[in-house]
Amino acid sequence: MQQNTITEQMTQAGQKIEHDSFAIVDQEVGTHHYSVDEWNIVRRMIHATADFEFNGLTRFHPDSVSAGLSAISLGANIVADVEMICVGLSKPRLSHFGVSTHHFISDADVITQAKAENSTRAVQAMRKAQRLGLLQNSIVAVGNAPTALLEVIRMINEENLRPALIVGMPVGFVSAAESKTETALLNDIPWIVTEGRKGGSTLVVAAIHALLALAEQANK
Fold it and tell me: Which of 63, 187, 192, 217 is the most exposed place for a label (fewest CB within 10 A)?
Protein backbone atom coordinates (compact mmCIF):
# COMPACT_ATOMS: atom_id res chain seq x y z
CA MET A 1 0.00 0.00 0.00
CA GLN A 2 1.39 3.36 -1.00
CA GLN A 3 2.22 5.94 1.63
CA ASN A 4 -0.02 9.00 1.81
CA THR A 5 1.70 12.32 1.19
CA ILE A 6 -0.92 15.09 1.26
CA THR A 7 -2.60 13.93 4.48
CA GLU A 8 0.59 13.11 6.39
CA GLN A 9 2.59 15.26 8.80
CA MET A 10 4.96 17.54 6.92
CA THR A 11 8.23 16.23 8.40
CA GLN A 12 9.59 12.72 8.81
CA ALA A 13 9.92 13.31 12.55
CA GLY A 14 6.28 14.33 12.77
CA GLN A 15 5.20 11.35 10.70
CA LYS A 16 7.13 8.97 12.95
CA ILE A 17 5.56 10.38 16.11
CA GLU A 18 2.08 10.11 14.64
CA HIS A 19 2.60 6.58 13.33
CA ASP A 20 4.15 5.47 16.63
CA SER A 21 1.14 6.94 18.43
CA PHE A 22 -1.25 5.03 16.19
CA ALA A 23 0.71 1.84 16.89
CA ILE A 24 0.41 2.39 20.64
CA VAL A 25 -3.35 2.91 20.30
CA ASP A 26 -3.61 -0.32 18.29
CA GLN A 27 -1.60 -2.16 20.93
CA GLU A 28 -3.51 -0.87 23.95
CA VAL A 29 -7.06 -0.67 22.66
CA GLY A 30 -7.94 -4.34 23.00
CA THR A 31 -10.88 -5.54 20.93
CA HIS A 32 -13.23 -3.43 18.86
CA HIS A 33 -16.13 -4.04 16.52
CA TYR A 34 -15.30 -1.47 13.84
CA SER A 35 -14.49 -2.07 10.18
CA VAL A 36 -10.98 -1.22 8.98
CA ASP A 37 -12.04 2.21 7.67
CA GLU A 38 -14.16 2.97 10.73
CA TRP A 39 -11.26 2.03 12.99
CA ASN A 40 -8.98 4.45 11.14
CA ILE A 41 -11.41 7.19 12.16
CA VAL A 42 -11.86 6.04 15.76
CA ARG A 43 -8.13 5.51 16.21
CA ARG A 44 -7.40 9.07 15.13
CA MET A 45 -10.07 10.32 17.54
CA ILE A 46 -8.41 8.37 20.37
CA HIS A 47 -5.02 9.70 19.27
CA ALA A 48 -6.34 13.26 19.42
CA THR A 49 -7.78 12.89 22.92
CA ALA A 50 -5.92 9.99 24.60
CA ASP A 51 -9.38 8.73 25.54
CA PHE A 52 -9.96 5.06 24.80
CA GLU A 53 -13.66 5.33 25.62
CA PHE A 54 -14.25 6.44 22.06
CA ASN A 55 -13.74 2.78 21.24
CA GLY A 56 -17.40 2.01 21.76
CA LEU A 57 -18.78 5.52 22.11
CA THR A 58 -18.32 6.22 18.40
CA ARG A 59 -21.14 5.07 16.15
CA PHE A 60 -21.39 4.95 12.37
CA HIS A 61 -24.29 4.91 9.95
CA PRO A 62 -23.64 1.99 7.54
CA ASP A 63 -23.03 4.40 4.64
CA SER A 64 -21.08 7.05 6.56
CA VAL A 65 -17.55 6.31 5.40
CA SER A 66 -18.46 5.85 1.74
CA ALA A 67 -20.61 8.98 1.85
CA GLY A 68 -17.80 10.98 3.42
CA LEU A 69 -15.25 9.81 0.87
CA SER A 70 -17.61 10.59 -2.00
CA ALA A 71 -18.34 14.07 -0.63
CA ILE A 72 -14.63 14.82 -0.22
CA SER A 73 -13.84 13.59 -3.74
CA LEU A 74 -16.52 15.94 -5.08
CA GLY A 75 -15.12 18.93 -3.16
CA ALA A 76 -18.09 19.25 -0.83
CA ASN A 77 -18.49 22.15 1.57
CA ILE A 78 -17.84 21.55 5.25
CA VAL A 79 -20.27 23.60 7.33
CA ALA A 80 -19.19 23.79 10.97
CA ASP A 81 -20.99 25.02 14.05
CA VAL A 82 -17.91 26.82 15.39
CA GLU A 83 -14.77 28.43 14.03
CA MET A 84 -12.56 26.05 16.01
CA ILE A 85 -13.33 23.22 13.58
CA CYS A 86 -12.46 25.33 10.55
CA VAL A 87 -9.21 26.48 12.16
CA GLY A 88 -8.27 22.95 13.20
CA LEU A 89 -8.67 21.41 9.76
CA SER A 90 -5.53 21.35 7.61
CA LYS A 91 -5.87 23.87 4.79
CA PRO A 92 -3.39 22.05 2.48
CA ARG A 93 -5.29 18.79 2.94
CA LEU A 94 -8.64 20.46 2.25
CA SER A 95 -7.36 22.37 -0.77
CA HIS A 96 -5.99 19.17 -2.30
CA PHE A 97 -9.59 17.97 -2.60
CA GLY A 98 -11.13 21.38 -3.33
CA VAL A 99 -13.03 21.32 -0.03
CA SER A 100 -14.05 24.62 1.60
CA THR A 101 -15.05 25.27 5.21
CA HIS A 102 -17.76 27.65 6.41
CA HIS A 103 -18.98 28.88 9.80
CA PHE A 104 -21.32 31.74 10.69
CA ILE A 105 -21.56 31.59 14.48
CA SER A 106 -20.02 35.04 15.01
CA ASP A 107 -21.65 36.90 12.11
CA ALA A 108 -23.42 40.09 13.16
CA ASP A 109 -26.67 39.17 11.41
CA VAL A 110 -26.66 35.76 13.07
CA ILE A 111 -26.25 37.31 16.51
CA THR A 112 -28.96 39.88 15.83
CA GLN A 113 -31.43 37.25 14.64
CA ALA A 114 -30.69 34.96 17.58
CA LYS A 115 -31.47 37.80 19.99
CA ALA A 116 -34.61 38.78 18.09
CA GLU A 117 -35.98 35.21 18.12
CA ASN A 118 -34.61 34.27 21.54
CA SER A 119 -32.86 31.30 19.94
CA THR A 120 -29.17 30.41 19.77
CA ARG A 121 -26.46 31.66 17.47
CA ALA A 122 -25.88 28.06 16.42
CA VAL A 123 -29.45 27.69 15.17
CA GLN A 124 -29.29 30.93 13.22
CA ALA A 125 -25.87 30.05 11.81
CA MET A 126 -27.22 26.82 10.34
CA ARG A 127 -30.23 28.66 8.95
CA LYS A 128 -27.89 31.14 7.30
CA ALA A 129 -25.88 28.30 5.78
CA GLN A 130 -29.10 26.85 4.42
CA ARG A 131 -30.16 30.20 2.93
CA LEU A 132 -26.78 30.43 1.22
CA GLY A 133 -27.22 26.96 -0.26
CA LEU A 134 -24.22 25.55 1.58
CA LEU A 135 -25.83 22.71 3.51
CA GLN A 136 -27.15 20.61 0.63
CA ASN A 137 -24.71 17.75 -0.13
CA SER A 138 -22.30 19.14 2.47
CA ILE A 139 -20.45 17.62 5.39
CA VAL A 140 -22.09 19.09 8.49
CA ALA A 141 -19.55 19.25 11.32
CA VAL A 142 -20.86 19.88 14.84
CA GLY A 143 -18.53 19.68 17.83
CA ASN A 144 -19.87 22.24 20.26
CA ALA A 145 -23.51 23.23 19.85
CA PRO A 146 -26.29 20.64 20.21
CA THR A 147 -28.81 23.20 18.96
CA ALA A 148 -26.96 23.34 15.63
CA LEU A 149 -27.34 19.60 15.26
CA LEU A 150 -31.01 19.67 16.25
CA GLU A 151 -31.66 22.45 13.74
CA VAL A 152 -30.06 20.43 10.94
CA ILE A 153 -32.25 17.47 11.89
CA ARG A 154 -35.30 19.75 11.78
CA MET A 155 -34.36 20.95 8.30
CA ILE A 156 -33.86 17.36 7.15
CA ASN A 157 -37.32 16.40 8.40
CA GLU A 158 -39.21 19.56 7.44
CA GLU A 159 -37.32 21.16 4.53
CA ASN A 160 -35.97 18.12 2.68
CA LEU A 161 -32.37 19.08 3.43
CA ARG A 162 -29.97 16.35 2.33
CA PRO A 163 -26.43 16.80 3.58
CA ALA A 164 -23.91 14.22 2.39
CA LEU A 165 -22.73 13.40 5.91
CA ILE A 166 -23.23 14.61 9.47
CA VAL A 167 -20.29 14.42 11.86
CA GLY A 168 -22.25 15.11 15.05
CA MET A 169 -20.14 15.22 18.20
CA PRO A 170 -21.29 18.13 20.39
CA VAL A 171 -19.96 18.06 23.93
CA GLY A 172 -21.87 19.11 27.02
CA PHE A 173 -24.69 18.60 29.47
CA VAL A 174 -27.77 20.25 27.92
CA SER A 175 -29.13 18.37 24.89
CA ALA A 176 -25.71 17.09 23.80
CA ALA A 177 -26.47 13.40 24.29
CA GLU A 178 -30.04 13.85 23.10
CA SER A 179 -29.03 15.60 19.88
CA LYS A 180 -26.72 12.73 18.97
CA THR A 181 -29.39 10.17 19.78
CA GLU A 182 -31.75 12.02 17.42
CA THR A 183 -29.08 12.08 14.71
CA ALA A 184 -28.59 8.33 15.00
CA LEU A 185 -32.29 7.82 14.24
CA LEU A 186 -31.78 9.21 10.73
CA ASN A 187 -31.94 6.39 8.19
CA ASP A 188 -31.43 8.17 4.90
CA ILE A 189 -28.69 10.63 5.92
CA PRO A 190 -25.29 9.14 6.83
CA TRP A 191 -23.81 10.16 10.18
CA ILE A 192 -20.93 9.62 12.57
CA VAL A 193 -21.70 10.40 16.21
CA THR A 194 -20.36 9.94 19.71
CA GLU A 195 -22.76 8.66 22.32
CA GLY A 196 -23.44 10.52 25.54
CA ARG A 197 -21.99 13.77 26.80
CA LYS A 198 -18.49 13.37 25.40
CA GLY A 199 -17.56 15.11 22.17
CA GLY A 200 -15.91 18.28 21.01
CA SER A 201 -14.41 20.08 18.05
CA THR A 202 -11.12 18.20 18.43
CA LEU A 203 -12.94 14.94 17.73
CA VAL A 204 -14.71 16.33 14.68
CA VAL A 205 -11.40 17.57 13.26
CA ALA A 206 -9.80 14.19 13.91
CA ALA A 207 -12.66 12.34 12.22
CA ILE A 208 -12.53 14.56 9.14
CA HIS A 209 -8.74 14.32 8.91
CA ALA A 210 -9.13 10.54 8.99
CA LEU A 211 -11.67 10.74 6.16
CA LEU A 212 -9.28 12.92 4.16
CA ALA A 213 -6.52 10.33 4.66
CA LEU A 214 -8.85 7.55 3.53
CA ALA A 215 -9.85 9.63 0.52
CA GLU A 216 -6.23 10.11 -0.49
CA GLN A 217 -5.56 6.40 -0.14
CA ALA A 218 -8.65 5.58 -2.20
CA ASN A 219 -7.43 7.81 -5.02
CA LYS A 220 -4.07 6.08 -5.37
Answer: 187
- Which of the residues are catalytic? 47
- Taking only Cα atoms into account, the Rg of the chain, rounded to an integer number of angstroms, comes to 17
Question: What angle do the packed helices 201-218 and 64-73 form, to 10 degrees?
Answer: 70
What is the per-residue pLDDT across 154-197, written as a single tens digit (0 to 9) for each? 999 999 999 999 999 999 999 999 999 999 999 999 999 999 99
Are 19 and 172 in contact, with CB atoms under 8 Å apart? no
Cα–Cα distance, 131 to 99 (Å, whole number): 20
Using alpha carbons only, what angle is made at residue 37 by residues 35 and 42, rounded to the nearest 5 degrees?
Answer: 85
How far is CA 214 from its chain centroid?
A: 14
pLDDT of residue 155: 98
Concatenated DSSP letters of 167-198: EE---SSSSHHHHHHHHTT-SSS-EEEE-SS-
Mean pLDDT is lowest, of 14-18, 70-74, 128-132, 194-198, for 14-18
**Does residue 84 have a pLDDT over 80?**
yes
DSSP summary character for residue 102: E
Q: Which domains does the chain have, with CATH numbers?
A: 56-218 (3.40.50.10230)
